[in-house]
Amino acid sequence: MENEKNSYMYKKFHFDNVFWDVPKKYDSIILYQVGDVSCQSGYKCEEHKQICYEISYIESGKGYFYTNGKRYDVKQGNIFINLPGEMHKIEADKIDPFRYLYIGFIFNNDIGLEDEMNHIKKMMDNTSVVPLKEDRVKISQPFFSLLSEIKDINEYSHVMTKSYIYQIIILMYRNYFSNWEYEYEFQEDMGTAKSMIYNVINYIDNNLTRIVELKDISEALGYSYPYLSHTFSEETGLTLHGYYAQKRLQKAMEFLIEGKKSITQIAYALNFQSIHSFSRTFKKEIGVSPSEYQKLHEYNKNI
C-alpha cells in the first residue's frame, strides 16, 4: 500500500487506483488497489503493515523491497509478493530508480475448497516462500492490460478486468509454485514415489489428446486409481484432477493461439463432452470464452 504523504514528490508519475472504501469483487478475488509508479532518486514508501496480498512487477530500473526488516535487491524483470500482516518498505535506487506495477487484493472468504484460487491462497500463505523471483511468464502483459482497462472503462470492462486480475494471479502462481514439476525430471536414483510422479507427469504431457478420463492414466501406468491419486496429491500438493485440468487448459490455449483448429475441433481433441462443456470450463477458469481469448490474443499481438 502506497504512502502518498512521504513519497509523492519523488515520483515521475503515479497511476494509482484505490478501492479501500468500496473494494471491487471479482468472484474469488476482492481488489483493493492497482497501480503503476515511476520513481525518481530518493523515492521511499515508508514502512507500513501490509493489509492485503500484493504482487509487484519491476518494469525498469532497480531498488529495494523490505519485508519484516529484510532487504531484497530488486531489478527489471523481478516479481515480488507480500502477504497480509507483513511489514513492508520500498526504496528506489539513487542512480537507476525503478518503475513498478502492483496489485493489492484479498481472497474472498466464500471461496470453496474446490475453487482453484483456494489452492493458490494456500501456496501464497506458505511463509517459507522466497518473495523475490525472476519473471519467466511475461506477467507484465496482463498488468498493462488491466491498467488500460481500468483507465478506459468500456463495454464488458468488468469481464475484462476480472480476466486480467486472474491472469496476473495465476501467472504469479506458475512463476513461484509450478517449479515442483522440475523436481521430477528423470533421475536414475529417484525413489518409488518420485518415479511414479515422473511417469504421471510425462504421461499426461504426452497424451493430453488421448486421455478420456483420469482412470486411463492409472490403467496405462499399472496403478490403482485411488493409490495413484493419493500419492500424487501427497507428493505435489495438487490433486491429480487439478493438474490434468490445468494442463488441458494450457493445451487449449496453445491451440487457440495457433489458430489451426476451430473451437469445436479443440473441444473434441481434448475430450471435452461437448463444445458447450469446453466453453463453460474455459470461461470459468480463464475468465473469458475461447473465442474472446482468441480475439484478445490477436488484439494484444497487434498493439
Automatic annotation (TrEMBL):
It comes from Clostridium amylolyticum. The keyword DNA-binding applies. It holds the Pfam family AraC_binding. Residues 198-296 form the HTH araC/xylS-type domain. The keyword Phosphoprotein does not apply. PANTHER family: ARAC-FAMILY TRANSCRIPTIONAL REGULATOR, HTH-TYPE TRANSCRIPTIONAL ACTIVATOR RHAS. It comes from the Bacteria. Keywords: DNA-binding, Transcription, Transcription regulation. GO terms for molecular function: DNA-binding transcription factor activity; sequence-specific DNA binding. This is Transcriptional regulator, AraC family.
